[in-house]
Amino acid sequence: MKRLAGKAALVTGAGRGIGAAIALAFAREGASVVLAELDIDTAQQTAAHIKAQTGARVLAVRTDVTQSASVQQAVSEAEQAFGAVDVLVNNAGINVFCDPLTMTDDDWRRCFAVDLDGVWNGCRAVLPGMVERGTGSIVNIASTHAFKIIPGCFPYPVAKHGVIGLTRALGIEYAPRNVRVNAIAPGYIETQLTHDWWNEQPDPAAAQQATLDLQPMKRIGRPEEVAMTAVFLASDEAPFINASCITVDGGRSALYHD
């Protein structure tokens, strides 16, 4: 029996990277999946790939997570296509790394609009239905930046700390209605964003090796390793896990110093 059989899931930022891996893993486990993505062309290509790989029901919907009406429309389209949304994964996010004292107001607002407001917009769109039905699972993709600080990354960790707070608050608020809200905190994961950062450095190969050297397992994570954690939290195998965060970083955040 597939672990998400009969469930409908909506994944934001699912066109590539961790979001695409989660959407594919959900489809393989029997879910009908909506890819809610700002870049609709990428989302449609990913949806076609997932459908070809799994035969699952997959829908791509253009979604701007910074706009609550856009997220609500995505949920409405998901409900029309597949019925009630059983699982929401708030994955959409952006990196905004600035010096605090030279950061612009626009940088601050852009970071929070996507990385925190976008998570709340997703939760707010699905919670009424989940509460009414007395069941549902929300998985928020946070980051190890939510509890570890790297200089030069402001205000990204501030937003990610907020995601953990939101996860805990909503998890407790709606626990009596059997709606679970959890988070995943990935560490270094091999996505296009990671490669883009390496390639922006003066010596990309050296930057990549320096990253690998920091890892206890001497490698970084793969998107599918985050995805399988999301499958677990979304499934009926985790009925008593709520208001929690699972760290997926190969042990990096457990180190006291290098």
TrEMBL record:
Question: EC number(s) for this protein?
Answer: 1.-.-.-
Keywords assigned: Oxidoreductase
InterPro entries, sorted: NAD(P)-bd_dom_sf, Sc_DH/Rdtase_CS, SDR_fam
Q: Which domain of life is it from?
A: Bacteria
CDD domains, sorted = SDR_c
**Gene Ontology molecular function: any one:** oxidoreductase activity, acting on the CH-OH group of donors, NAD or NADP as acceptor
A Pfam family annotated for this UniProt entry? adh_short_C2
Give the similarity note. Belongs to the short-chain dehydrogenases/reductases (SDR) family.
The record's section on PANTHER family has: SHORT-CHAIN DEHYDROGENASES/REDUCTASES FAMILY MEMBER
User: What is the designated name of this protein?
Assistant: Oxidoreductase UcpA
Organism, scientific name:
Paraburkholderia fynbosensis
